[in-house]
Amino acid sequence: MLPPSLIDLTLARLSPPRHLVNPQLCLRFGNARYLQQAALAFKEPASDLPATYPLSGSGSSKYQITSKQSETSGRNLSVRPRNPSREVTSKLAQRVQALEKAAGIEESAFEGPTFSEEDLSMFYEEVLEHRSMMEDPVEIHQPETMALQDPEAQLREDFSIIDALHHRLEIGHATRNDIGSTTLAESLRQHTGTTVLAESFQAESIPDGLTPTYRRVLKEIQAIFGQLESLQAPIDVPTGLLSYREWEAIYRTCIYAGDGEAAETTLHLMKLNKVEVTEDHVNDVLAMYAESGNALAADRCLSRFVEGSPNETQRHLHIKAHLNACPPSSGTIPESALSTLHLYEQRSIPPAQKTYSKVISHLFSVPSSTSQAQAWDLFSHMRYVAHPNPDPILYTSMIRACASPYHITRTSEPERALDLWYEMTVEKNIPPNTGSYNAIILACARSGRKQYVSEAFRLAKEMLDSHRDAYGRPAFAPDRKTFIALLEGAKRIGDLARVRWMLVEMVSGKSRDVDVDEEAMLNVFHAYATYKPPFKRGLTRVVQEEEVNISGASETDPAIDMEQSSSEKDLTVPTNRTFSHIPPQSSTEVLHEVDTLFYRILEDTGKLPPSPDSDAVFPSEISFENVQPTTRLVNSYMSVHYKHGSFESSKNLFFKAFEEAGVERDARTYLEGMQNCAMSKKNEREVALKFADELYAGWTKIEEKNKGKLSARTVERLHVAYIKTLALTDNLDRAMSHLRHFVSAYPPSSIRDPAAYTKSPLRATQTRLVGARPLVRLSTPIDVPDDLIPPLLTFADLRAVHQRLVIAGNRAKDIAYITYVCKAYEWALRVRRDERMKAKPPKESVGIVAADEQNLAEEDEE
After folding, report:
1. pLDDT, tens digit, 9 for 90 and up, residues 452-480
2. Which burial class, exposed, middle or buried, applies to 449 when counting CB atoms under 10 A from its CB (0-12, 13-18, 19+)?
3. How far is CA 824 from CA 749, 793, 815, 817, in A?
């Protein structure tokens, strides 16, 4: 509600002049309140006129009235009184001004501080600043030793200390020889009274000229302690033989040389000399053993120098040593590392989460479906037993693992990856980084399904646009892995337009820290191979001149004729044409672009001399020098010619491309070439047969050279393609002969071999709440494929031969043999499956687990 004074002031200012005011009219319009206040406020004002003042009139004459005269004759003078409404208005105005002043004071009390444009800019810079770009506060410490300033200077100082110590010990050794060892032992006993029980140091077998100085020093020290061994002194005090600085110098030198035996001997002598052996000393030795993968030495070090339970760092290094003792290239699961990890869990001292991440990453690196399934099981087990909330690093590893599942029938698992992404970013509110974005984009892109590939590009846009600072700079700029993941998705759906756009972005240098490498061009060539050009010459009709009528119009649709003629013109492509923004419209244009890219790579890497037309296609600032020609790069280049070129041209290029690139052919090279022969057209089969024979001759050399190392699926697919090529060219006798050769080389009995599959105790599925294995699993034995199945044949592989034999007639024996082969392999697979499901861990493994559980039970009782 408005104050009454303000209402009165408003009405007073809106009131009409006095001579126009009609009281009845004012009352009629609600102005009675104003008239009442004016009447009450009216008083005869005191005269405030000056002593003389002019009266209104014309001319120059003036009447002057003194104040005395005005007082006596005031009644008779006709003087107009003051207007009361003005007086009221002035008082109301004063009140309103006072009210405004008070309101202004109150407003200034509650008013916030004002910011300038510079202040606002600095404020938003701090709010939107990327955490990755923020510098960590640097703590300034005055280094106590030279090792914190210069490691090389510290190493030189250690060498000088060891040399001086060696010189001193040599003098002492000469003195001992002069005065006798008994006298020296007695003097040391009287000085220290130390009882020594030193271990033997294996340095005697090394000649003195080749023995390092620090080993000779340790040998001299052991000799001194050996003389004190027979004293049996009752007092146990430090000998003071070496200073702490000298002990540290010897220890650091052993670590630098990677001599674990000498380092352990130094720590043992330090303990005998009552010099403190800290956890850092033991951790350094364990770290050295962990890097070299010496698990036995790590076990020994822990038992010698750690009393009680190892700390978190020591447990991590202990398990890491067992992991590195079984590298991923071996293809086996690191059972010793997993057993050690589970034993720590049973002792109620589970390892740190970084240890679980290390073990899971190692399991994913092993090329085995069983190992990858074990990694998923360990992830679920960790959340149940030790760490329910994974960190961003582990989340990223699991999301990336979804891009390469252990299931044979799946290219990736985008649903599981998106579930983990939602759990990390929404439920756990963990901010993503560039690595996690790359992982989820790769998992969606490798699915090959259009909806998930579109989701991958949406996530890439979110990565680029959703986290920008005050100047619009993204927090997560796309790197090489981002582009590789997007290329993986685009090539699987045949989206060549996006692939060409991303290639331009990479080679033009618009994206920082992104170089075109061999993997990027591998995906680019695959995209050209999966691309389906819109123009197909076989679907067009060439209009002859006889079909044109008198009026000059074609008998067919004019629009179709125009399209056909323009398409025919596109078939002849100039050799120096630059790339346009429009994707190639025909197979000829596809091959032209691919050839241009491939030979530009060979020119930039020095495999071929530069051509004069090279700069006409690509500017001189664009370079492919980081693209190293490899066998798989040439294989991807050949796949484009297999898809879009003729069989004759791809055959000629097969013998030319690898020589020009300077790389050797591998098993996949011969497999793809043989499959191209099996899919040749009817008029190309004679040429395909000759080419297939040449390929098989080269394959036999590869098979003999890498016997037992080639993938079983690669071997069987190549033989199936060769048999199919022989059958399609009506060489049925040769096809049957090769089939018998395959059966003799890879008999069905090899599949039923019970020794081909053994079950690890870590893969046991018995329900237990405590045990040295994962207690909660995400995989079952049915889900995990068997990677060790030898090559085999099914009826689908021999269908072409079977049909040709039926058509030929009088081949009943051959048909029966094909039936026998298919059934034999099928039965062998059934037996292998049953044996695998019934498999049990070996007895020695069961004994190890039982012994470990017994030791834990004894510790609990103590």
Report:
1. 999 999 999 999 888 777 777 787 888 99
2. middle
3. 9, 9, 14, 10
Query: Torsion angle of alpha carbons 310, 314, 320, 325, nearest 10°?
Result: -70
Q: What whole-number distance in Å separates Cα of residue 73 and Cα of residue 830?
A: 142
Q: d(Cα 157, Cα 146) in Å, to the nearest integer?
A: 9
* Contact status, residue 193 vs residue 235, Cβ threshold 8 Å: yes
Residue 806 pLDDT exceeds 90:
yes
CA of residue 276 relative to chain centroid, distance: 43
- The phi-psi region of residue 513 (left if phi > 0; otherwise alpha if psi is between -120 and 50; otherwise beta) is left
> 409-433, pLDDT tens digit by residue?
778 999 999 999 999 999 999 999 9
Confidence of residue 44 (pLDDT cuts 50, 70, 90): very low
Task: Tell me if 831 sits within 8 A of 750, measured CB to CB.
Answer: no
The pLDDT of residue 791 is above 70: yes
Question: Do 267 and 305 touch, CB atoms closer than 8 A?
Answer: yes
Assigned token pair, 784? 């995990």
Rounded to whole angstroms, how far apart are CA atoms 588 and 575?
Answer: 12
Dist CA 509 CA 507 (whole Å):
5
Average pLDDT estimate for 200-214: 55
For the chain, give the number of residues: 862
Yes or no: say if 183 and 194 are a contact pair by the CB < 8 Å rule. no
Confidence band for 533, pLDDT divided at 50, 70 and 90: very high
The torsion defined by the Cα of 354, 358, 363 and 364, in degrees rounded to 10, comes to: 90
DSSP 64: -
pLDDT band at 540 (very low <50, low <70, confident <90, very high): low
More confident residue, 679 or 125: 679
- Of 321 and 609, more confident: 321
User: Cβ(487)–Cβ(524) under 8 Å?
Assistant: yes
Question: For residues 632 and 396, what is the distance between their CA atoms, to the nearest angstrom?
Answer: 28
Distance (Å) of CA 798 to CA 687, 690, 802, 816:
22, 21, 6, 12
Whole-angstrom distance, CA of residue 15 vs CA of residue 17: 7
What tokens does 362 get? 């190692």
Q: How far apart are CA 788 and CA 370, in angstroms?
A: 11
- Dist. CA 300–CA 268, nearest whole Å: 13
Residue among 448, 423, 439, 512 at smallest CA distance from 482: 439
Residue with tokens 């001399």: 609
More confident residue, 371 or 537: 371
- Using only C-alpha atoms, the chain has a radius of gyration, in whole angstroms, of 47
Q: Looking at the predicted structure, is the pLDDT value of residue 58 above 50? A: no
Q: Are 634 and 575 in contact (CB under 8 A)?
A: no
* pLDDT beyond 80 at 341: yes
- What Å distances lie between residue 484 and 184, 475, 488, 497, 507, CA to CA? 73, 19, 6, 15, 13
Domain ranges of the chain: 1-43, 389-492, 494-541+574-664, 671-729, 749-862
CA distance 509 to 516: 10
- Cα–Cα nearest to 460, from 473, 481, 500: 481
How far does CA 291 lie from the centroid of its chain? 24
Which pTM does this prediction carry? 0.75
Beta strands in 221-376 (DSSP E): none
DSSP 62: -
